[in-house]
Amino acid sequence: MDVELVVRAQQGDHDAFTEIATALSNRLYRVALNLLSDVHLAEDATQHSLVEMWRNLPRLREPQKLESWAHRIVVNACRREGRNKKRWIQALALSPEEDPAANQGFASVAHRDQLERGFRRLPLEQREVVVLHHYAAMPLRDVADVLGIPIGTVASRLSRAMSAMRAALEADDRLPEHAPTAREAAK
């Protein structure tokens, strides 16, 4: 993000902030949608984030870190939305234009469903790290800045999340394709 643009927005330039909001809003929304898995909650969290950014922008000490700061705000907004609505992640949601499985057949859809089930089982702290690192393509140091935790904690949460998802996928692979019904098992 252009530091001069951020400085202008910090000084109250509405056009500069509009340009920043336009550049960031889709990415912030995608992070919110992946964390909340509810379009309406994600929209609310994104809107709350943009309002909070405008209100607090003059206090941002390091304009070059605007994007990390914006991601921290949206993650916190998602936490609030989740607590307020008591509706946390039901599935990892991908928009149709970003869904790699959209035109790849049944096997790809089944694989994505497996990933979603594994992702759903992760605690919120691990989901945040996975979304920010893998989906938002942030380096671990930036994820640590966004979440306000040490980089070692980020690495640990990411490692645990990947292990848990791997274990979930392996467990799914061990399940028989056709589990016998009670009637079939009794025969």
Question: What are the SSEs and their pairings?
Answer:
Elements: H1 3-10, H2 14-36, H3 39-56, H4 66-85, H5 106-120, H6 124-135, H7 140-147, H8 151-174, H9 182-186
Helix pairs in contact: 1-2, 2-3, 2-4, 3-4, 4-7, 5-8, 6-8, 7-8
Characterise this structure.
The longest helix has 24 residues. It contains nine helices and no strands. The N and C termini lie far apart (about 65 Å). By secondary structure, it is mainly alpha-helical.
Overall CATH class of the largest domain: Mainly Alpha
| Tally of helical runs | 9
The end-to-end distance, rounded to whole angstroms, is 67 Å
Oligomer: single chain
Helix content: over 70%
Question: Which labels suit this protein?
Answer:
187 residues, mainly alpha, Rna Polymerase Sigma Factor, Chain: A, Arc Repressor Mutant, subunit A, 9 helices
In short:
The chain is an all-alpha fold and 187 residues long.
